[in-house]
Predict the structure.
Amino acid sequence: MPDFLLHALLAGLALALVAGPLGSFVVWRRMAYFGDTLSHAALFGVALGLMLDVNLTLAVTVGCVLLALLLVTLQQRQPLASDTLLGILAHSTLSLGLVSLSFMDDVRIDLMGYLFGDLLAVGSADLAWIVGGSALVLLLLVPLWRPLLAITVHEELARVEGLPVAAIRLALMLLIAVIIAVAMKIVGVLLITSLLIIPAAAAQRHAPDPRADGAGRQRAGHRRSVPGVDAVLVRRHSGRPVHRGQRRRVVPAQLRLAEARMTDLKYLRGYPEPLLAQVRQLIAEGRLGDYLQRRYPGRHQVQSDKALYGYVQTLKQEYLKSAPPIDKVLYDNRLDLTHRALGLHTAVSRVQGGKLKAKKEIRVAALFREAAPEFLQMIVVHELAHLRESEHNRAFYKLCEHMLPGYGQIEFDLRLFLHWRELQDR
C-alpha cells in the first residue's frame, strides 16, 4: 500500500476512535455550536502560526485551547446569552483568519484544504500529531467518563455528590479543542463538527445504554437521551410527615445502601439507570433531603383558595390570555397521591337558563399548600397548559417550558420530593 494511503487510513481510524465517545457528549450536552465556534477559530490559528513561523498544528491547538478557556470565562460572567456569545466569536475568528491570510502576499497556502480538509495529503508529521493527539484525548477520557456522564445526566446531583462540575466541564471543552485542532488536516475547518455530531445523532436509536453509546458511536451509535418528561402522575401515598421530636431509627450504612438499591423509584420510572443510581446513592447516604432543601429552601405564601385563584389567573393572563376562562380554582384535600394526580383540570357541565354550560376548574392537591413555590408553579403551569393542549405531546411540554423555564428539571425534583416524603414515614 502506498504511504499516502496508509497515512490516510491510520489518521482516519485514529480520529474516528476518539471522535466516537467524545461526539456522544457533544450531542448529549448540546455542544454542537460550541464545536463550530472552536473549528472556525482553527483558521485564525493557522494565520497566527504562519505569522509567527511555528508548527501549524501546534498553533491551531494552542489557539483552540485558549479560545475554549475564553469561552468558559465569558460564559461564567454571562455578559451575553451563550448562543449570542458563541455566534460572535465563531464568525469573528473565522473572518479574522481569512482576512489575515489574504494579507500574507509572501505565503501561498491551499485555503480549500484548510476549509474542507485533504485526507490524502496527510504526511508523516501530520500523522504523528493526529495519532498522538487522539491517544492523549482517549487516555484522558477514560478516567473522566463517569464524571462526565454524571454531570451530563444531572448536573445538580453530580454537584451534591461532590464532583468538581466546573472543572469537568472545562476538561471536556479542552478535549474537544484538541480533537478539532488535530482533525483539521483531515476534514477541514468547516466540517470538523460534523465528524463529532452526525454519526452520534444518526445512531441514537441503536445503543442500549450510555456505555454502549460511547463504543457504538465509534460504529456510528448513540442511545436516546433522557426520555421526555411525562405528566406528574403518581401511584399512591402511604406516609405522613415526620413531626419534630419524632425519633428516627439508626440504620448502619451498609444496610441503608442495600435498602436504597432495593427501593422502587416508582416516581422516576422512565429515567435512565445512571440517574437512578445517583438517586439511590443519595438515599443511601441520607442526603436526599439536604439536596432538596438546598435547591428549594422557601415556602410559598399562597395559602387560601382565593389566593390560589389569583395566582392562577395571573399566570394565565401573562401566557394564555386567549385561552378559555377558568371559573374555579381550589386546594383539594381529597386529591393526593392515592388519586394518581397532584393536580386536576376539569370541565364541569351545568344547566343554566335552559342551556348546558361547561365551567373550567383547576384543583391542586392540598399537600402543595406547604410546598416550595417552584413546585406549586410547576403544577399550576401543567394544568394551565391543558387549556391549549389536551394531550401530553411535544407541543404541551414546549408550552410548559415557555411558561416555566426549567420545567423538566423542576418536575424531576418534584418526583424526588415525593420519594423523600415517603421515606420520612419509614
Q: What stands out?
A: The chain has two domains: 3-218, 227-426.
